[in-house]
Structures are given as C-alpha cells and as structure tokens.
Amino acid sequence: MFTLFDISLITLIRITAAMEQLYKLLLLFAVGLISGFINVMAGGGSSLSLPTLIFLGLDSSLANGTNRIAIFIQNMVAVASFKQEKFSEFKTSLKLSAFALPGAIIGAIVAVRIDHDLFQKILGIVMIGIMITIILPKKNNKAKTLADSHSWLIYPAMAGVGFYGGFLQIGVGFILIAILFNLMHINLIRVNMHKVFIIFFYTIPALAVFIFTKNVKWEFGLVLASGNALGAWWSVKVAVKKGENVIRIVLIITILIMAAKLLSVF
Predict the structure, then answer these.
(1) Residue 138 DSSP label
(2) What is the predicted pLDDT for the residue at 145?
(3) What is the pLDDT of residues 151-181, one digit of tens each?
(4) Cα-Cα end-to-end distance for the chain
(5) What share of the chain has pLDDT > 70, as a percent?
(6) Backbone φ, ψ for residue 153 (5° rounding)
(7) DSSP letter for each residue of 54-91
(8) Residue 187 and residue 244: Cα distance in Å, rounded?
(9) Do residues 257 and 124 lie in contact, with contact meaning Cβ atoms separated by under 8 Å?
C-alpha cells in the first residue's frame, strides 16, 4: 500500500521530470530559432545546436542525426520563403545539388567519431580566408547564371561540399558561400538562395542514413526543427528586405566568432 507521503513523493518526482523535459524542449526551440537564422543568413548554426544536443545527453552520432531533422525542415522553409520573395532558380540549384548528392550519401555513411582538433584549426583559418574574399570588392559583380560562370571547378567543389555536409554539417554554409560567391560571381542574396536549396536536397539521403541506423531522437529533433524553421523564415525576410549588406555584416561577425572558437582564442 502506498502512503500519502509515497504518493506525494512520486507526484513530485513526476512533476520535476516533466519540468526538466519542458526546460530541455524550450532550450532546444530557442537554440533552433537562433541557429536557423544564422544558418540561412550565413552559416555555423549547427555549432550551437549540436553541442546543445550533446549537453542534453545525446551521444555524438545521435546528436548528429537528430540535428539533420532541423537542417532538413529549416532549409525546406528557407527554399519556400525565397520563392515567395521571388528569388528562385530551381534549374540551376538542382544542377548544383545533383553533384553534391553522391558525396553527401558517402559522407553520411562514413560518419564516425574522430579527433577534430587539427581539422578545427585549419577550418578556422579557412573561414578567415572566406571572410576576406567576401569583404574584398569584385571588379564585375553583375548578376550571372551558372552558364555564364564558365568555371568547371564548381562541380568537383559541390561533390566535396556534399561529402563534408553529409559527414559533419558544421560550417558547411560558410564553405558553400565561398564557393558560390567566388566561382559563380553572384550577389549574396542569390548565393544564399542556392545554398539553402543545395543543403535541403543533399540532407534528404543523409537524414535517411541516420534514420536507418537509428541515430535520430525524434522528439528533440522536431522541437529543434520548429525553432530552426521559424529562424529560417525570419532570416530570409531580413536578407531580402535589408539586402546584401546585412548578410555581409552577419556573415563576418559569425565567421569571426566561430574562427576564434576553432582557433582556441577563447
């Protein structure tokens, strides 16, 4: 027989557990909102969401897979938002995505826990280089299509981006921005338009791999995704309304913070 004290204690434990779960879900939504905004505007949002998922008790593989739900929904919303704002070139985006797709599948399959210390320092230096290429003015900044670019390097570059995105995802937005901006010579609004489509497209098979290997925590993933989706929608509205200059500002600030972190400045 349970005494009144026992019932009260059990009730208190259940309430405490429910409050703890609610705190986790609210934290995930807030992190998703911020990371979704940053991901669409610049990149590096997963450097917030992945550590948060691990902090909440998920191992690295489960966190990696759970984060892909948010990435998928975030970029689906961003693609739709760009189209609503009359920014869409699906034929070009699809062509670029097709070259990223095989690499993403391979990257997701071979995704394992490895030591990233040296890689993180190299990535930090690379991101400083990306920032410099974006700051420096272009001699000819007229809008061009992929056909106008005449750079075959875009295709192997997409394959490499696909592999990295399928494997880890963190910072892939920065890499895509640098590639599209420098090889296609288009403004940053159109760069982000193509970027979100490419990531959305290659995330489909990558997410499927994580689901198949049971590396997804759905409750956390869907709450995180709802935050990411709202952040992505907001980011597109700000980018289109404020123009390329606001993207440059957010991009530079984000790169400086992430590069400093990767290089152990703080």
Answers:
(1) P
(2) 47
(3) 788 999 999 999 988 887 877 888 899 899 9
(4) 57
(5) 77
(6) -65, -20
(7) HHTT--HHHHHHHHHHHHHHHHHHHHHHHHHTT---HH
(8) 7
(9) no
Helix, strand and coil percent figures for the chain, each rounded to 5: 80, 0, 20
Q: What confidence tens digit (pLDDT) does each residue in 193-203 have?
A: 999 999 999 99
Q: What are the distances in angstroms from CA 83 to CA 77, 87, 159, 200, 236?
A: 10, 5, 25, 14, 10
14 burial type by CB count under 10 A (0-12 exposed, 13-18 middle, 19+ buried): exposed
The answer to whether the beta carbons of residues 206 and 69 sit under 8 Å apart is no
Q: What is the pLDDT of residue 266?
A: 55
Residue spans of the domains in the chain: they are 4-262
Largest interatomic CA distance in the chain: 83
Give the H/E segment covering residue 129: helix 117-135
176 HSE (CA, 13 A, CB side)? 35
Cβ partners under 8 Å of residue 226, min gap 6: 29, 32, 73
Q: Are 194 and 93 in contact (CB under 8 A)?
A: yes
The answer to whether residue 71 scores a pLDDT higher than 50 is yes
Helix (H, G, I), strand (E, B) or coil at 263: coil
